[in-house]
Specification:
This protein is an alpha+beta fold and 129 residues long. It is built from three helices and seven strands. It has one domain: 4-Layer Sandwich (S-adenosylmethionine decarboxylase), CATH 3.60.90. Helix 2 packs antiparallel against helix 3.
Amino acid sequence: MEYSTFGRHIIADLWGVDFDKLNDIAFLKEQLNESALASGATVLSIDYHRFDPHGATLFAVLSESHLSIHTYPEKGFAAIDGYTCGHSVDPLKSIQYLLSALKPDKVNSLKVTRGQSDLTIKRLALRED
């Protein structure tokens, strides 16, 4: 089987997210899993680390690459990242799912197209709906 090097990488900074959502590992793990499924990805594993006194990093290993979220509840901030290889899974769907679950006040995001002769970066105007 020949694999494509083409990939889409969505990077998003979320501001104004509820402290309790950003500090709830079970909630975040469920949302990360559901967001992967919403994009058509295959989840291989989800790992996490809880920080003291608050905050977390969660990482979903996908057959198609990865999704991650790093939370700073005390600042209402989350950094999310979705990268998938090939054309069949769209990480934007995962990011949009997470936006609908986390309901940020503000989102800054980029789309990076990878694995081609030129790296392409575009600013996205994402909203949570």
